[in-house]
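Is this the right way to post structure tokens for a design question? Let me know if I should format differently. Anyway, here goes:
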């Protein structure tokens, strides 16, 4: 069982009817957002974000990272290429500069493209509950570093 939160976010800089043509779809989050699939063998595709971008004829800019949690998308020290958090988006990856979080990088991109953002999605939460789902009386911890949920 997996739990994920998918949000559509309205922010300043997002296109509204009658203004500039929206051309960017910004995505943040965990493996759901980047299309990483662990089975049958680890591989990545653009997942649902690539499908949506193509259908809407938008350019996908994906700041997501496999393994991300509600805390790590806000954490400037949570590097995507750190094995703990898994791979970044395989296609249409947005750049998360060193010392910035996914949220900070996405916010900077949105601010730099005011009026051209058509859609923003945040897929996050599954990795926050995975340790609980995998825990058992004989294995109370999966060994992953705990992260507390952050709700704004």
């Amino acid at each position: 069982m997996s739990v994920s939160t998918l949000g559509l976010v309205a922010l300043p800089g997002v296109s509204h009817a009658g203004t500039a043509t929206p051309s960017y779809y910004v995505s943040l989050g965990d493996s759901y957002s980047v299309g990483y699939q662990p089975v049958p063998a680890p591989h990545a595709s653009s997942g649902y974000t690539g499908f949506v971008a193509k259908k809407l004829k938008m350019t996908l800019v994906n700041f997501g990272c496999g393994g991300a949690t509600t805390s790590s998308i806000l954490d400037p020290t949570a590097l995507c290429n750190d094995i703990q958090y898994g791979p970044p988006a395989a296609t249409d990856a947005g750049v998360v500069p060193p010392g910035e979080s996914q949220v900070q990088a996405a916010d900077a991109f949105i601010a730099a493209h005011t009026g051209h953002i058509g859609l923003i999605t945040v897929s996050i939460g599954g990795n926050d509950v995975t340790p609980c789902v995998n825990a058992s009386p004989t294995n109370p911890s999966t060994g992953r570093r705990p992260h507390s949920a952050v709700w704004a």
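Format looks fine. Someone answered above. Worth noting: Confidence is low (pLDDT under 50) at residues 1-13, 143-152. The helical segments are 31-34, 47-56, 102-112, 126-134.
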